[in-house]
Design goal:
Helix content: 40-55%
Strand content: 15-25%
Shape: globular
Structural class: alpha/beta
Distance between the termini: 8 Å
Length: about 190
């Protein structure tokens, strides 16, 4: 499978490279675009400030340009938090998208979003300060109306970015369960 994996608001950190290596070890080809052009952050506030400085349109433009050389192959779009939101936007706009793997985040959908049974898997903490239960319920219904085939996995007690071993949110058990399930999902595409 060809996968483009987008980083979180922390930037392209070691955890993203480790995730890409894990996916490669399972036989996938993976690209990890650096949407922040080398900038990485230790705190979410710093990362968000930089993200806001760039602006959503610039981030999406960078993501589109990074994915474009590979999109003809039929990509699985994947990402962490901000990267998940970015991946979702790109996957819903790419008729050749093979799947969508969302880790720790979602994004709003355009009213006219439509896909043809796009396989989608979401992994998110429960509770998650950025993905409330009400939001996730509404998101799930909107994705279904758009034509996506969605699976949601919740991890009780985990922190927002629980797959990143360098952050306080890290939860080894939830991270392993996420990767086991995600790798199984990718095998079905």
């Amino acid at each position: 499978m060809n996968i483009v994996l987008f980083h979180s608001t922390y930037g392209l950190r070691p955890a993203v490279h480790a995730a890409a290596d894990r996916l490669r070890a399972a036989g996938h080809e993976v690209w990890t675009p650096d949407l922040f052009e080398g900038r990485v952050f230790d705190g979410v506030e710093e990362g968000r400030a930089f993200q806001n400085e760039l602006g959503k349109d610039e981030i999406l433009k960078r993501a589109i340009l990074a994915a474009a050389p590979y999109s003809e192959r039929g990509l699985v779009y994947a990402g962490f938090s901000l990267g998940a939101a970015t991946a979702q936007t790109l996957a819903l706009g790419d008729e050749k998208a093979r799947g969508l793997l969302l880790l720790h985040g979602t994004s709003d959908l355009a009213e006219n979003a439509a896909v043809d049974e796009l396989p989608v898997q979401l992994h998110v903490a429960e509770p998650d300060p950025f993905e409330s239960d009400d939001w996730l319920s509404a998101w799930y219904l909107r994705m279904g109306r758009a034509g996506a085939d969605v699976e949601i996995y919740r991890y009780a007690g985990a922190g927002h970015l629980y797959t990143d071993p360098d952050l306080d949110d890290y939860d080894a058990e939830a991270a392993e369960a996420t990767w086991r399930t995600a790798l199984g999902f990718l095998e079905t595409l």
